Inverse folding.
């Protein structure tokens, strides 16, 4: 698999895939990997029925609120997944290119509950209203934070729904946003409509 390690003249930027849980972040990580970006992952969370192509996570990202930033140096010129609730903890020591995934909220809620059921957990622990409020809070905080940090952050919003319905123009936007050197055909190959199981 070819990788474009020289996506930027100097690997000063950290490419971040963000969004709410179940919004298509893992799919975007896989797309960027086959497109040529090296992902920063640890493989601790294995693929399962909910994410058959893998979660593409890096556990130390969860320590951002505690000030664990050392791994960011390894992320320069690579791509790492940071969910929306943790995005605001990224330090201003780096520049970021954020691909932020959006998805219809009813689909996110349905997918989240289906995942809880598969894990044997009670999907009724939190009401849809409370979960929607929590997710919306994360989105608002993340969007306002990125707007305030425009000097160091560029963001591209990508609709998961649009990506599944008409992929090519969405992938073109991503490739252009990240410098135009990714393999668009390989990225398109990853999109699997059969995995679009919770439709609004």
């Amino acid at each position: 698999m070819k990788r474009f390690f020289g996506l930027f003249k100097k690997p000063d930027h950290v490419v971040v895939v963000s969004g709410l849980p179940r919004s298509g972040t893992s799919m975007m990580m896989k797309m960027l990997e086959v497109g040529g970006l090296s992902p920063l992952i640890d493989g601790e969370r294995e693929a399962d029925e909910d994410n058959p192509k893998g979660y593409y996570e890096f556990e130390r990202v969860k320590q951002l609120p505690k000030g664990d930033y050392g791994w960011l140096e390894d992320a320069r010129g690579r791509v790492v997944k940071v969910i929306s609730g943790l995005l605001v903890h990224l330090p201003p020591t780096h520049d970021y290119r954020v691909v932020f995934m959006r998805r219809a909220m009813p689909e996110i809620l349905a997918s989240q509950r289906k995942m809880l059921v598969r894990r044997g957990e009670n999907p009724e622990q939190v009401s849809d209203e409370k979960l929607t409020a929590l997710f919306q809070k994360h989105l608002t905080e993340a969007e306002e934070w990125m707007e305030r940090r425009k000097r160091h952050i560029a963001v591209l919003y990508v609709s998961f729904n649009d990506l599944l319905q008409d992929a090519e123009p969405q992938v073109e936007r991503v490739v252009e946003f990240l410098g135009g050197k990714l393999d668009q055909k390989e990225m398109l190959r990853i999109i699997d409509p059969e995995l679009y199981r919770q439709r609004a």
In short: The longest helix spans residues 128-148. The helical segments are 25-35, 72-75, 84-87, 105-118, 128-148, 160-165, 167-177, 184-190. The longest strand covers residues 95-102.
